[in-house]
Specification:
The chain is α+β, with helices and mostly antiparallel strands and 145 residues long. It contains four helices and seven strands, in the order βββββββαααα. It folds into two domains: 77 residues, no CATH class; 43 residues, no CATH class. A hairpin with a 5-residue loop joins β2 and β3. α2 crosses α3.
Length: 145
């Protein structure tokens, strides 16, 4: 399928695995910047981060459009939600609002602190699971354990 951009303002998303390093600013005693190393992300198939952002097509090729967000590669809920936010679909999407469903079930005591999925998944540690995070947000961390 050929994509035709009649508006001249076509934008796209990029999502890539990469390696990211924090930046550093060193100041003297008066607060003047004496050394600055910018943060950077580099595409790397073995990296532990997922980088999500926008690109634009120009006469000179493809350029990054604005800043990108960086997520740990385990944080699928984070980077997929951000990609959907950038896409900004104009219709209802076909993914149920699981966060509000889980929070409502906890608030209505449909299940207690125990996650209804914990007996069915051996592939994720509960503290890394987004459902566990939503439960903690609803009942509070001191009650969640």
């Amino acid at each position: 399928m050929e994509i035709i951009d009649t508006s001249g303002s076509m934008r796209a998303l990029f999502m890539t695995r990469g390696t990211c390093t924090m930046g550093q600013t060193t100041r003297d005693k008066d607060g003047n910047i004496i050394k600055q190393i910018p943060a950077k992300c580099e595409a790397d198939p073995d990296g532990s981060c997922v980088i999500v952002g926008r690109i634009k097509f120009t006469d000179n090729g493809i350029e990054q459009d604005g800043s990108a967000e960086v997520f740990g590669d385990w944080d699928a809920a984070g980077y997929l939600a951000y990609a959907l936010e950038l896409l900004n679909p104009h219709r209802r999407i076909n993914i149920p609002p699981f966060e509000s469903i889980v929070k409502a079930m906890v608030a209505e005591s449909c299940f207690e602190r125990t996650c209804p999925f914990e007996n069915y998944s051996t592939e994720i540690y509960c503290k890394d699971c987004i459902v566990d995070h939503w439960i903690e947000e609803t009942v509070g961390p001191e009650e969640a354990d």
